[in-house]
Amino acid sequence: MEHQADIVIVGSGIGGSSLAYSLAETGRRIVILERGEHLKDTPEARDDVAIFQKGFYKSGEEWAGTDGETFLPGNYYFVGGNSKFFGAVLYRYRQEDFTPRDHMGGRSPGWPIAYAELEPWYERAETIFRVRGDAGQDPTEPPHTRPYGFPPVPDEPSVAALRKRLRKAGIHPSSLPLAVDIEQWLRRAQTGWDAFPNTGAGKIDAEVGPLAHALAHPNVTLITGANVQRLETDESGRKVTAAFFIKDGVEHNIRADIFAVAAGAVQSAALLLRSSNASHPNGLANSSDQLGRNFMNHNTTAMLAIDPFRANTAVYQKTLGFNDFYNRDPQGSFPLGNVQLLGHITGNILKANAPMLPRLLAGLIARNCYGWFLTSEDLPNPESRVTVRDGRIVMNWVRSNMQAHETLILRTRAVMRKAGFPVVLSRTFGRKTTSHQCGTARLGNDPKTSVVSPICRSHDVANLYVTDASVLPTSAAVNPALTVAALALKAGAAIGTL
Length: 498
Ligand SMILES: Cc1cc2nc3c(=O)[nH]c(=O)nc-3n(C[C@H](O)[C@H](O)[C@H](O)COP(=O)(O)OP(=O)(O)OC[C@H]3O[C@@H](n4cnc5c(N)ncnc54)[C@H](O)[C@@H]3O)c2cc1C
Fold this sequence. Notes:
Layout: E1 2-4, E2 7-10, H1 14-24, E3 30-33, H2 48-53, E4 63-64, E5 70-71, E6 101-103, E7 106-108, H3 115-128, H4 157-168, E8 174-175, H5 182-188, H6 207-215, E9 220-223, E10 227-233, E11 240-247, E12 250-255, E13 258-261, H7 265-274, E14 299-306, E15 320-322, E16 338-341, H8 347-353, H9 359-367, E17 369-376, E18 385-389, E19 392-396, H10 402-418, E20 423-428, E21 464-466, H11 481-496
Parallel strand pairs: 1-12, 2-3, 2-13, 3-9, 13-21
Antiparallel strand pairs: 4-5, 6-7, 8-15, 10-11, 11-12, 14-17, 14-20, 15-16, 16-17, 18-19
């Protein structure tokens, strides 16, 4: 079947939906092709056994490592993409993340644009995602032209007590910037939201925020269950002419003037690699040979700080973080990373990660612990890459900067002990946790070393854009979604003038 549009966007995640938002008012016919369907509101949506132990929402698509082993990644395919499950922490990259800087594990190259250039787009994105926060609390917060539009999501009493304990231990805790409407979220069920699917409007994810706004325009259409297989170019190779997708077992193609790929960092790279042709033998828009390379995923660890004498009564918990070690290790000089609360850990969540643990013990630990999420920068490396072999995605993630991450774990453990938590356990996440994937189509000014320009346009193919986490040239050490949205909005403004 054949279709026609002015602009085709592949993927309805943060990047694709933010782009659709910014283009909706141009009046052009925009078609969003989304592989997944709308998430349904079933009992599993708030069932920690279904989500964490049974993997109810995971797709059956396996990826391979270079060791040949296959695994089920934590990558989700629904309208709204991975943001349906996100922790909704919408940090801006710190100003220092845009300039080159030395890390324990090497040099982070910085960005081809300065923070000031992205600032208006961050502000726009915060408005769209209705971010709650207080820019005055965190000493590492970059300049904001305007304060957040809503006050922070309130700390629960247990978290307010934790904030005091951390302050006493010499730390500067700050409220997390959150895209969460807490009343709405809790109305559905008394659970945390981190890694829980959003089937209502409690989280302002890609679907609830920018996509809903875009689809209110008659010129914007969403086709679900549309799995894009490849893009085709004209003979010159300078122009994409059509996207081919499978829906309900039938092949369709859609022609348009402009194509934007926003299928997520791994899937966008795979789609462009699969779209190789005579003009683009190594993958579409890959004259630099950087497509699929520089794959980054953050070094992340879950840490449990246990106080055997005091229960944590929090329901959602995830309102606090600290960046005391973000720019500099106080006992050294290198940046270490961000520390933020996880959603409230239940016995079932704990058991999903430690199946050997007796259920009773898991419940006891969960009752008396605070779960933390530690993030350190993963540096771009051309050998860390995504490829496609016999139709299967192969992810060769070469971790970097682990020494910094291990130091962050040490420093955070010391903080927790000082704050009165005698038992501190930690576990570093591996390759199955692909939540913060980025970097496979990095943006830059030089067509020899980057895939897209700073407005996310392919250096090689004039009407092709990539507007998702693929384009991030560095991973920094904060959650990526707001930066993905800001870049997509910036790209949309440029496309809108064409
Ligand atoms: C559990 C979890 C917690 C997270 N917490 C946070 C957080 O607190 N803060 C934060 O900033 N980030 C968080 N993230 C990361 C954040 O969700 C991602 O950075 C962000 O969603 C990336 O957006 P994207 O547009 O690049 O890709 P995606 O969200 O992956 O969207 C891509 C879309 O494209 C679709 N698609 C894929 N392939 C095809 C194809 N071939 N054809 C058609 N459609 C296709 C997918 O179904 C998907 O809808 C979290 C992620 C997870 C999984």
